[in-house]
Design brief:
- Helix content is 43%, strand content 0%.
- It has 231 residues and is mainly alpha-helical.
- The protein folds into 2 domains: 14-97; 117-194, no CATH class.
- The radius of gyration is 38 Å and the shape is rod-shaped.
- The termini are far apart.
- The mean pLDDT is 78.
């Protein structure tokens, strides 16, 4: 006759696991430590269990940077009924119901969101220049950036007059460009076209008639279906 001890346990009949990331065996060891009458022995077993968890439990790899977290988890698995010499402050049951601190969303007042915050930072740096030529070069470069950034998020094309106007607003009138000059010389052409590397020139004397590197066709070796085998 098969005894009940030989029959496998079902999860529905087993004891509830408080922290599933540590597994059932760790939960059983915590329950055993609670039953040890001597406090010094309980503390020794708790320290040993912490070291064992560091080696076996995957979640412990993240907790090793914060050892107190592992001791807090030990108390949680013991249902806060564990009397040992804790090297850290003994946690309270209220930590289970403590809400995480609300993260404040950064409040950046961006004048033109379709250009981004970095454009405003670049404008602030550009207006520090005193040389008129450098100011004009900085304004043209910023105009190219603004047009490129706008095109990345919008399908329609942004007119150069809008960029000239917005650039003057962002710089408080310090970066001003002539709209007619911008249009005639196409100064706000997209930036990535200007950064495209020129193609390398072909060395002199090289023959480009066979670009794929294939062997030249040999007419002598060409198969002739009418050629006799004895020739």
């Amino acid at each position: 006759m098969i005894s009940n001890n030989m029959i496998g346990e079902y999860n529905t009949s087993r004891e509830h696991i408080i922290l599933k990331e540590y597994g059932r065996n760790v939960q059983k060891l915590v329950n055993y430590i609670r039953t040890v009458p001597d406090k010094g022995k309980r503390t020794e077993l708790a320290i040993t269990l912490i070291e064992l968890i560091k080696q076996l439990a995957p979640v412990a790899k993240e907790a090793q940077e914060n050892p107190q977290r592992m001791w807090d988890d030990l108390y949680i698995m013991a249902d806060f009924n564990l009397d040992v010499d804790n090297p850290f402050t003994t946690p309270d049951r209220t930590i289970l119901f403590k809400k995480p601190r609300k993260m404040e969303y950064p409040k950046n007042d961006v004048r033109f969101r379709h250009y981004g915050k970095n454009i405003e930072k670049l404008v602030k740096e550009a207006v520090k220049k005193e040389d008129p030529n450098e100011l004009e070069e900085a304004a043209i470069y910023l105009g190219k950036l603004m047009k490129t950034f706008y095109s990345a998020w919008n399908k329609e094309t942004l007119d150069d007059s809008v960029i000239v106007k917005d650039l003057a607003i962002l710089s408080q009138g310090k970066l001003v460009l002539n709209l007619d000059k911008v249009r005639e010389e196409n100064l706000f052409e997209k930036l990535y076209r200007e950064q495209r590397k020129p193609t390398g020139t072909r060395p002199q004397g090289s023959d480009n008639r066979n670009p794929r590197g294939n062997r030249p066709f040999n007419k002598k070796n060409r198969h002739n279906p009418h050629r006799r085998r004895d020739q």
